């Protein structure tokens, strides 16, 4: 049985949601790192002008190489994350609170609690 079938047996469309989440979160994180690396390259390439190299061409080459490496890293990370993905099934009550419940703090955490009828009237 393939991983997709195992995950889809737990919840329909879960694998698609997981892939979308993993892909977007990896793209977001690696894109931010890429932009930081480009700032560093911009500063470093300025010094190459002293070596009679065109800084613009050097910046484009370095940026392209960083971009290709970022794309490969996204692919590797997403594939690895999907391979490691193990969905956790929660109780239906915990996963989807009723409309008549509210979020309250208990101890150090938060939980859903059924609201009293008087509280519901004030909420409307």
Automatic annotation (TrEMBL):
GO terms for molecular function: ATP binding. Signal peptide: none annotated. One of its GO terms (cellular component) is membrane. Residues 11-85 form the SecA Wing/Scaffold domain. One of its GO terms (biological process) is protein targeting. It holds the Pfam family SecA_SW. PANTHER family: CHLOROPLAST PROTEIN-TRANSPORTING ATPASE (PTHR30612:SF0), SECA INNER MEMBRANE COMPONENT OF SEC PROTEIN SECRETION SYSTEM (PTHR30612). This is Protein translocase subunit SecA, chloroplastic.
